[in-house]
Amino acid sequence: MGKKHKKVVVLPCSGIGKVYGAVARETMYELLERVRPDTVATTCLPLLVIKDPEAVALVTENPVITIDGCPKDCAKKSVEALGKVVDKAYEAIKFYKEHKDLKPEGIAEVNETGRKLAAVAAEEVTAEVDRLAAGEGA
Amino acid sequence: MDIQVMKVGVVSCSGEEIPEGTLCRLACRKVLDERPGETVTICLPLFIAGGEEERTFASNYPTITVDGCDKMCAAKATEMLSGKPAKSLSIPEILKKHGLKPPEKLRHFGPEEEAAVKAVAEEIAQAVDEVLEED
Lengths: 138, 135
Fold this sequence. Notes:
Number of domains of chain A: 1
Structural class of chain A: alpha/beta
Distance between the termini of chain B: 20 Å
Number of domains of chain B: 1
Largest interface: A-B, 34 and 35 residues
Helix content of chain B: 40-55%
Oligomer: heterodimer
């Protein structure tokens, strides 16, 4: 078992063009505010683009989970551009494929069904958060 | 004959960490929905994660950046990786100008945040008009 971590960083897609970007964000907010508020941290993805020192330190010094909204994988690639390998990468559409009864709608923010899907997704991601916080690597 | 329709690029701070980021995304989306023929957007991280097409965004469209805090990621990243924005807007400055309080929630905006979203969207729309007039 590796080093235990106080924080696990979850970075969602930052897009405002597709529903799964909004699902990715909502999933991160579920983790950050409801499910694991003491463990999960996030930062603004554009801060990594401009290489803000605090944001870069947060990402390079802690385990990172990305949740992308489309196959362009901006969140994952933004982390990789810093020379860091993400510990776990999700694409938000996966959660819908596994829960077809929860079809999300909305782009900047998801509707009620999308929120339910994000809550379910957050529960799934929690297992990974806990594993990484305990020092169990990818 | 080709008729080229001029579009203005709107690049939003995504600001997942701050309420102003959510305000920014909602206001930009509102303008994009209300002015579909005149506006276009790009996800900011695509300047790094995307290809040549994404990186030439600000050369292809006169671009307005909208930032949620004084770190001005959208303006800086656009200038650094794509091209100088035609205009750079700041949410804190817009809220101050309109005498509005910054939002406090990260998500699930409702009636309390409606005035702020409307004010920011109106400022973006006005900037779109100005850029279209200039060109």
